[in-house]
Amino acid sequence: MSGKAHSLEWWKTGSVYQVYPRSFQDSDGDGIGDLAGIEQRLDYLAGLGVDAVWISPIYPSPMADFGYDITDYCDVDPMFGTLEDFDSLLAAAHARDLKILMDFVPGHTSLEHPWFAESRKSRKSARRDWYIWRDPGPDGGPPNNWISEFGGPAWTLDPATGQYYLHIFLTEQPSLNWRNPEVCEAMYGAMRFWFDRGVDGFRVDAVEHMVHDTQLRDNPPNPDWVPSMGPARSHIGRYSQHQPEVLEVVREMRRIAQSYPEEKLLIGEAYGTLDQFLAYYGAELSGFHLPFNFLLIGATWSARNIAGLVETYEAALPERAWPNWVLGNHDRARIASRIGPENARAAAVVLLTLRGTPTIYQGEELGMENVPIPPDRVMDPWEKNVPGEGLGRDPVRTPLAWDTGAGAGFTSGTPWLPIDDRPEMTVERQNADPDSMLSLYRALLALRRREPALAKGSYATLQVSEALFCYERRDNSDRIAVAINFSAERQTVPFEGDLLLSTETTGSGPDPDVLGSHGAAIYRLR
Ligand code: GLC
Ligand code: MG
Question: Which residues are in the Glycosyl hydrolase family 13 catalytic domain (predicted)?
Answer without folding.
Answer: 18-397
